[in-house]
Amino acid sequence: MNVEQNYLEINRQSWNNRTDTHLKSEFYNLEGFLNGKTSLNKIELDLLGDITGKKILHLQCHFGQDTISLSRLGAKVTGVDLSDKAIESAKQIAADTNANTQFICCDIYDLPNHLDEQFDLVFTSYGTIGWLPDLDKWAQVISKFLKPNGQFVFVEFHPVVWMFDDDFDKIGYRYFNSGAIVETENGTYADKEADISQSYVMWNHSLSEVVNSLIRNGIEINTLDEFDYSPYNCFNHTVEFEPHKYRIAHLDNKIPMVYAIVATKKAAYTL
């Protein structure tokens, strides 16, 4: 079996390998989170608005900080992730914080075999779709689990960012989806000096691929915004020009770094 065919197991192991380091990292600040600090950023908080009483499905939730942060805002939230180690940690953190959440460990394409309900809102954010080979299947899952007139809120790193090499010195990758990108990294974005190494399989997805996959599956785009900064210090050679706003130092504000979509499932749409 080739690497692309076996991407799920490779990526599961990749995220399992990162989890302990992430739990201990300043990046995720678990101690602050356990003491009530939210993990959500202003970008998504502004898009989400008042979610009191809403049922939310959170796709690719890692170890559940955003899932639990959403529940702290009054929602009933279900988090889904491929990594069994991350989900095990998410369940423990939820128990420690008395969160109104449940967690499911599975590949999101397989979620219909693990869950049978619909939600007011589906949410996913930051570094998620690059792990998925087929965005049409992704959009089908979103559409399936949204109630009619339900809302999809999505925040992601801009595809222009993924064109660059790690040091943002040159264009290293194609903007459009050209198939699997297979690489190995030392450390992790949350702790670049960590003594870990993992392989992974990813795909680049253009804005048009994202938007059209949603439209084809009965999801109407309401807003599409782009931002010239990242709320996370997860890239090389960054500068914090305002609190919690990071840019690549030598590129300043010249490239988009994040985009956000709010969309609505058409009431009459059926799969």
TrEMBL record:
Q: Where would I find the Methyltransferase domain in this sequence?
A: 56-150
Signal peptide span: none
Pfam family of this protein, just one? Methyltransf_25
This protein's species is Myroides phaeus
> What is the protein named?
Methyltransferase domain-containing protein
One GO term under biological process is: methylation
Q: List the GO molecular function terms.
A: methyltransferase activity
Record carries keyword Cytoplasm: no
Domain of life of the native organism: Bacteria
The UniProt keywords, alphabetically, are: Methyltransferase, Transferase
Q: Which SUPFAM superfamilies match?
A: S-adenosyl-L-methionine-dependent methyltransferases (SSF53335)
